[in-house]
Amino acid sequence: MDYELSINGDVVDRPEDVDTLMSLLTNVDDFWISSDKESDNHFIQAGVTTGISESLQDKYENHYHSLEHWKDGTQIIEVEDVDVSVANKLVKAFLEKDYDSIKETADSLLKLRGEVGEDTFCTNCGSKLTPEQRFCPSCGEKNN
Ligand SMILES: [Zn+2]
């Protein structure tokens, strides 16, 4: 993917390879955003200590406070308290445009924590929706 990387609010030179990127991201002390240059409003971002009180920041060592994947103004995934190794996996999948794998990883994390609620079904076509899916993947209908 042709992407742009922003760290702590500043656009930085794009790392040469994924390993360099990972070591860069691991050392981010605030937040990073990796944006798809070919598509507006498509990015993955993670915050390290943003929004966390100082007394809790030690807890978040090697963790991201939250990680989000957005496309076209819709939040596709949001996972809180993400281990760096999991975040790395998600970023790699993003750069490889393997969005299904991002979703699967995030879903399995949320399931593990019991944060996934009952399945719901599209009001238009009856397709199964995950709790965080506001737009039906089959017909595009907006569901609540
Ligand atoms: Zn539908």
What do these coordinates show?
This protein has 144 residues and is of the alpha+beta class. The chain folds into two domains: 3-113, no CATH class; 117-144. The protein is 24% helix and 30% strand. The chain contains three helices and eight strands. It has helices spanning 18-26, 84-95, 99-112; strands at residues 3-7, 10-12, 31-36, 42-47, 63-71, 74-83, 120-121, 128-129. Strands 2-1-3-4-5-6 form a six-stranded antiparallel beta sheet. A two-stranded antiparallel ribbon has the order 7-8. Helix 2 (84-95) runs antiparallel to helix 3. The protein is globular. The chain starts with a strand and ends in a 15-residue tail after the last strand. The site of zinc ion has 8 residues, from loops.
Number of domains in the coordinates? 2
Compute the separation of the termini in Å. 32 Å
How do the strands of the widest beta sheet line up side by side? 2-1-3-4-5-6
Kindly estimate the percentage of residues that lie in beta strands according to DSSP.
25-35%
Write the H/E string, N to C. Answer: EEHEEEEHHEE
Q: Main traits of this protein?
A:
3 helices; two-stranded antiparallel ribbon; binds zinc ion; 144 residues; single chain
